[in-house]
Design a protein that fits this description.
180 residues; alpha+beta; 8-stranded antiparallel β-sheet; 13% helix; 32% strand; globular; DNA-binding
Length: 180
DNA sequence: TGCTTGATTAACT
DNA sequence: GTTAATCAAGCAC
């Protein structure tokens, strides 16, 4: 599996195309898989983005090759997962905010400690799939990776809304949500 | 070296 | 509707 062409483009263009793709995690031989239903785009010129202001150690993965995983800690207690996009040298990524459980729902329930809201919200999604700092920079299209991205069924339709939880760049409608 | 602020969530009142 | 939990990056001193 090679990195799809659209991931070499801008985040705002790539983000909606990721809807319907499947994210699979294999940790300790246990598999969980979701179909992406909610994403947000972050680009280099975007004051809300971690890549804003140039290349720094923390955001180096965002400036690397597309198709890799960028993970960061949010509010000191949650992990958030992004798919890096744009060519090498461009700091852009797509935040994975929510998905629909396809496999390993029972494991997700155990990891989350609850049965509802398994994979809604970026922090919850990571917790359910066991994504942490140690997966940062992984190639999502390498069959040896713990985290893998696979094509799926594109949604019949989706909507674009303002992004959640940010204070800058709020005018951009770069959040994309699958419509049932 | 110290203070402030989050690409959040869940448990309160 | 409000707030605690919890920590590292970023900025002010």
């Amino acid at each position: 599996m090679t990195v799809p062409e659209f991931l070499f483009g801008e985040a705002r263009t790539a983000a909606p195309l990721l809807l319907g793709w499947r994210l699979q995690s294999t940790i300790d031989g246990q598999v969980t898989e979701v179909e992406l239903t909610e994403v947000e785009a972050y680009s280099q010129e975007d004051p809300a983005s971690h890549s804003f202001g140039g290349l720094r150690p923390r955001n180096a993965v965002m400036y690397g090759s597309p198709g890799r995983l960028y993970v960061y800690r949010s509010y000191g207690m949650h992990w958030c997962a992004n798919v890096v996009c744009g060519p090498d040298g461009m700091g852009a990524a797509v935040l994975l905010r929510a998905g629909k459980p396809l496999r390993g729902a029972e494991l997700m329930t155990r990891r989350r400690g609850r049965v509802d809201d398994l994979t809604t919200g970026p922090g919850n999604l990571c917790q359910a799939m066991g994504i942490t700092d140690e997966h940062k920079g992984q190639d999502l299209f390498d069959s040896n990776s713990a985290l893998r991205l696979m094509s799926g069924q594109p949604p019949a339709s989706y909507i674009a809304t303002p992004r959640v939880g940010i204070s800058k760049g709020v005018d951009r409608r770069w959040r994309f949500v699958t419509q049932a």
